[in-house]
Amino acid sequence: MRTYSLAYLTVNTSSAPQAVSMAAELGYGFVGLRLQANAPGAPHQSYLEDVAVQRETLARMKDTGVQVFDLEIIRIGPQFEPLHYRALLEAGAALKARAVLVAADDTDEHRLAQNYARLCEFTKPYGLSADLEFMPWTGVKDAAAALRVVDLAGRPDNAGILVDALHFGRSATRLADIAALPPQLLHYAQMCDAPAGLHFSTDEMIHSARQQRMLPGEGSIDVKGLFAALPADIPVSVEIPEFQRAARLGEKTWARQALQATKQALGDLD
Description:
The protein is an alpha/beta fold. The chain has one domain: TIM Barrel (Alpha-Beta Barrel). It is about 40% helix and about 15% strand. It has 11 helices and 8 strands. The protein has helices at about 15-25, 50-65, 85-95, 110-125, 145-150, 165-170, 175-180, 200-210, 225-230, 245-250, 250-265, and strands at about 5, 30-35, 65-75, 100-105, 130-135, 160-165, 190, 235-240. The chain has an 8-stranded parallel barrel, surrounded by 5 helices. The longest helix is centred in the C-terminal third of the chain and has 16 residues, at about 250-265. This is Xylose isomerase.
């Protein structure tokens, strides 16, 4: 049976404990949490410096059985220092998370690969894979580039490549590129939909990624073809932020619709 995780961006105003309870009520087995901002001053869930939130999150996980799949976010820039993320990784170990999401902010592929290898080595004792997400406005623009970086890094034991349907549909990535990714590097994938194409500006791509995605079937991304090219049992992170609809419907209703649409697209509805 396929595993589904409620991604942070889908319910981005919910606290970590609220996300766990919501996931349990709606039938998600996991949650994804953003415990460290993706940019200075950017929104994220209060956790690392809030002991009460840590205790409540762990208590709700114990009560519901919902687990944490992935944590966000580590960005690798030219001056990357893994020690900056020690608190995030310690939290991941305490939460028994499986993966940490990694973004590339360095266009020097060889330096990026060296720093990615350092990150994997630093992350390994915490029991987390380091999943490099290709995004067309970053230093790793497509699936082929992600695989090159991982290979240049020596393909560490805990290396991973994260496939997001949005970035598949808005990059030069082909289904053959997805099928060529080694299965051992694919720990989970992110589901959403949107208009596909290579004509979007960076600002438009970032806006869509962070707050205006569509339910599977509403856009023109070949989500069925994408997931057919991925391992059949790959865990699915339901990452479908749509701030206007979530505000109008309420995040719980939106998260329910997102899960139902995802299951329908993947043929998993009862």
